[in-house]
Amino acid sequence: MLQTDSYRKGLWRIAVITSLGWGVLSFFPMINAGRPFFFRGRFPREGMREFRIPTSENHLYAFMGIVLLMLCLWFFNIYLYGRLGKVNLSEKTRMISRYVLSYVFTTFVYYGMMALIYVASDGARVRIFPLIVALTNNTIILVLMDLIFLQRKSDQIAVENSQLKMNHAIAQHQHLKHQLQPHFLFNSLTTLKSLIKRQRPEAEEYLVRLSDLLRASISTQQETTIPLKEELKLCVDYLEMQKVRFKDSFQYQMEVPERILTTGCLPVFSLQLLVENAIKHNAFTVEEPLTIRISFQEPNSIVVWNNRRAKQTLEPSSGIGLKNLAERYRVISGDGINITEAEEYFSVELTLLFDEHCHN
């Protein structure tokens, strides 16, 4: 269906160009024959002098006749396509009806024009060959229109597929993020329970920071990515919560230039997840503290690094963490994350996202 002005304008541009083109092409047989190709310069009645139009007028009349005929055919075919598109018929029936009506109209228009020429030339005989040419031209118009509509449908399908992929990616990302939030909240509440039993003042401070962090997470509920500056703030809130619990047995460092803070973005809670993993999977004391370092690495990466000291007894793990983050990166940008696991340290490199990947 012709539903957009751009396609209508495009069709009419093609109609005008092709009509003028056919008019120009009509000069060649006229130049060879010395007369318009759609009637002969003689009359069937005996004794009547031969009718001849001056050559320049022959060319002009023929040019105008061809252009007018082609524009009529284009107009009718465009109109017919729009009208039949509103009729409740199958695609095949619509196409057959369109072709039959189009050829009938072409024949009618041709003989109508020939009747006018007959009167104007006082008896010029109508020829069959130009009718064949007119039907051939109409076939070309029908084929061109079908190609244009096929291309339009192809473009529409491509746009719809792209939109479906985007919607699927957003839904998939939201699902992954919603997996992560209960995971984080469960761990935080477990820690809070432990603090309430042993360290009530620290538990109160921890609860205040947890409240601030959850408030921030609600404000980013519908967001896929977040500016680096805001993501670092969420991460610092989480680290300060852990400082309440572990005191001086762990420390963290931020080495991110000010100029980088507002230039890129990261998936929401990506840094918090990485530092949470570092705290969860390592043993640390005041004598041998855990060190977490978040730094910028040229040209456009954020690296989360921590020293390693494996726990003797591993805590139960849901396996959501790194797998979740890697999948979220794949959904958003098509890239993964770089993990480096050595005996003395563990690091994860996250590529900063820019432009089209930084959206809500």
Automatic annotation (TrEMBL):
Gene Ontology cellular component terms for the protein in this record: membrane
Keywords: Membrane, Transmembrane, Transmembrane helix
Transmembrane segments: 12-31, 60-80, 100-121, 127-150
Pfam families: His_kinase
The Signal transduction histidine kinase internal region domain, residue ranges: 171-250
MF GO annotations: phosphorelay sensor kinase activity
Name of the featured protein: Signal transduction histidine kinase internal region domain-containing protein
Organism: Rufibacter latericius
